[in-house]
Amino acid sequence: MSNEDFIEEIEQNIEEHGVQIIQIDPDNEKDSPSFTYTIGLTATGRPEILVFSLPEKAAHIMLNDLAILENKDYFQHKLLTEIGNLPMIVKPVADNAAVVEEYVCWAGNLYDDVADDQLIWPDEEGKFPWKDGWNKSFDPYQSALYSLS
């Protein structure tokens, strides 16, 4: 499938469903985790959402649930317990241009100005990466693109 055909398919899915969700599994040679992100929220004035290392089906369901929420202030920086079976938090990414270039490039192909949020999951003790006691063995599975402010 050509890039043009793929972009056309993305646009059709956004028109039909309001959002396209894409799973990326990096080459085995890279030391980076898989990730899943939305495309289409930019058209509604909201940031696209990115999450790392979740199974494809789980990530798809969670991002779809978040895409349905009308007001981004409803979930940004707040503990979410109504999606999936883990508490999660959504935070804006720290360097938006770099994230668009490296991670959500298909959204960047469709929209001129893309903002991004990261959906962040806790470790097995329910601690988030910025908290004392976070299990650092999870670091390779969840890139820290988010801003703490």
Structure notes:
28% of the residues lie in helices and 18% in strands. It is α+β, with helices and mostly antiparallel strands and 149 residues long. The protein has one domain. The longest helix is centred in the first third of the chain and has 15 residues, at 3-17. The model has no long low-confidence stretch (mean pLDDT 85).
Low-pLDDT stretches are none
Strand order of the largest sheet: 1-2-3-6-5-4
Strand content: 15-25%
Cα distance, first to last residue? Answer: 41 Å
Number of helices: 4
Question: Kindly state the mean pLDDT as a whole number?
Answer: 85
- SSE topology string: HEEEHEEHHE
**Molecular shape:** globular
Which structural class matches the secondary elements? Answer: alpha+beta
Instruction: Characterize the main sheet.
Output: 6 strands, mixed
- Report the strand count: 6
The count of domains is: 1
Radius of gyration of CA atoms, rounded to a whole number: 15 Å
